[in-house]
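Design a sequence for this backbone.
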């Protein structure tokens, strides 16, 4: 019903829902750094923010937060962080002061050291592992 008892001439249509985006990249946490799929970087990263790598990285990564290697990520590096999550490919040594997780699509070729380690079904791991409370990153 419109103003002053008059009918509203506009047809009422239910609001449309946006269609979900197929195969959307993972959403990074607030205040994070994202390295895109088409990005290639060689060098050293030292950050206190979370880091999501979807591209290619060669070098060394140090973070007091989380480092995540997305499904398209390819990392050849020494990685030290509070937590590390691998869905892509990592070649190198990884040390996490809290948790290291290799997800089902993840591949790690190198050593890992963490207080907590999780390897999902389907994940690939070749190297050595060490569980140590409060592993130094």
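Sequence:
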């Amino acid at each position: 019903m419109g103003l002053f008892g008059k009918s509203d001439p506009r047809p009422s249509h239910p609001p449309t829902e946006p269609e979900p985006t197929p195969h959307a990249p993972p959403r990074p946490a607030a205040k994070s750094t994202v390295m895109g799929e088409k990005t290639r970087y060689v060098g050293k990263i030292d950050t206190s923010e979370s880091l999501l790598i979807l591209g290619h990285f060669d070098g060394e990564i140090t973070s007091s937060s989380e480092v995540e290697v997305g499904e398209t990520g390819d990392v050849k590096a020494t990685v030290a962080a509070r937590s590390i999550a691998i869905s892509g490919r990592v070649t190198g040594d990884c040390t996490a002061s809290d948790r290291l997780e290799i997800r089902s699509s993840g591949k790690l070729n190198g050593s890992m050291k963490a207080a907590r380690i999780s390897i999902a079904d389907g994940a690939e791991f070749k190297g050595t592992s060490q569980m140590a409370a409060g592993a130094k990153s």
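The chain is about 0% helix and 50% strand.
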